Amino acid sequence: MGIRRTTPRPRAKRNIALIVSMTGFGEGRAESDTIAVTAEVRAINNRHLKINYRSSDGYHGLEPQVEALVRKLAARGTVTVNVRVERKASADDYHLNAAVLKGYQRQLGELCASGETPRIEALLTLPGVVDTPDAAAADAEADWPVIKKALESALDAFGSMRKSEGQALAVDLGDNCTVIHEQLTGVEERAPMVVDGYRDRLQDRVAQSLEKLGVTVEPADLVREVAFFADRSDISEEIVRLKSHIEQFRSTIAKGENCGRKLEFIAQEMGRETNTIGSKANDTDISHRVVEMKAALERIREQVQNVE
Q1: What GO annotations for molecular function exist for this entry (predicted)?
Q2: Cross-sheet strand order for the sheet of 24-31
């Protein structure tokens, strides 16, 4: 007997849960009279929270402040934060190193046979002639308000992307739960027929054997054998537990954020009950339905890995 096809349920308009994806990206910019800041935040899956901070020279000391902002938003995942700071240099920020310049003039003058002194503009590009602003001397604490503004903007975009992906995850997880529930309903309807079918087949085989051998079998023996089969193939408890797990899975999604680990655990329990139903089924139709349930569970396991 093949799988009974059920008419797909139309997707109801629903209040999407507040679950969020662990993956995301966000970029923010801010500037002041002295600096221009670009902040990038990106994240990939991780069972725990790991924050990697990279910045321009002179701003590595801001890592504790950066981590504090990220931890307010992320609970799991590998989060990489890149902060680029460009200083808006003015003419007063550059200084001629007179000693180095005179040294170049003297050495080149000695090399020139005519004794002609090289033009100064030709020497300005030589190493050490012009002192540029030292990035290590940047006042990171003084620049922090501008950096924080850029980082908060990046985190806002990062959070929005994760929520958007979380909405898609919630819909997909819910749809796969529906597939499992519909197949489980078919299993529940089919289960009582399995024992009846076994009893009928057993009676037919016994009748054929008795006719050949010319012996009799007590009806109690048949009843005992059917009862033993019914007990061995009984899946009523597994069906009840799996229904409970499905409802718990759905309610966990509805509760919102930071439920990824709990969803993983519930999915494991759903898989355990499904495997038991498949091993005890002794029926082709139920086995086919179990295959569909396992396929949906595998999709759930893959998607749950993305939930924070």
Answers
A1: hydrolase activity; RNA endonuclease activity
A2: 24-31, 35-44, 77-87, 49-55
Q: Clarify whether residues 101 and 188 are in a common domain.
A: no
Is residue 105 located within the same domain as residue 220? Answer: no
The residue among 108, 106, 89, 86 whose CA lies nearest residue 98 is 106
Is residue 114 located within the same domain as residue 198?
no
Q: DSSP H helical segments within the chain, as ranges?
A: 63-71, 98-111, 140-213, 219-232, 236-255, 260-280, 284-304
Number of domains into which the chain is organized? 2
Name the phi and psi angles at 265, rounded to 5: -65, -45
Q: Which domain holds residue 234?
A: 166-304
What pLDDT score does 293 carry? 95
**Residue 214: inside a domain, yes or no?**
yes
